[in-house]
Prior knowledge:
By secondary structure, the chain is mainly beta. The protein has two helices and eleven strands. The protein starts with a helix and ends with a strand.
Amino acid sequence: MNRKLLLASLAASMFAAPAFAADYTIDPTHTHVAFKIDHVGFSHVLGIFGNVAGTLSFDPANVGASKLNVTIQADSLNTISSQRDADLKGADWLDTAEFATITYVGKTFTKTDDTHGTIVGDLTIRGVSKPVTLNVTFNKAGVHPMTKDDAVGFDATATFKRSDFGIKTYLPYIGDELSVDISTEAHAAK
């Protein structure tokens, strides 16, 4: 084998090499759950949940055996409007005094190609659990340059209706369908 072909093969194998199978802890400082919802047809309200924690078991050679458990502190909601945030945390919306957390538990993990897949799991909001599908993009796996931990990164999107979780305030003026964007980094559990 000539030297150029050998170097090209080594480079390709380095970039294509899967991460080791591991249990990971979600890095809350590099994990974001953002949403968008229609506001009376004129604009969209954007928001983010700032307190997200969870665990992930991931083996790129056996994606179907993965596990995912995520907990979001509902009162970490931020829409850049203190009055709106107070309303959304109130009893007519998320009722964070009664339901402190939003959870997502992955049930079915499907790989569609080398960097994409789906997770079907149970989303629980206000004590109501419904199946929600995440469309997932696998960003990267490898040794994190700062922490030296094995790490993985994913982005995901989903849409669902808030009314499915009993949140019907101001329908139909404020949209029923939420678009969710997630970006997460997770480090091998120690």
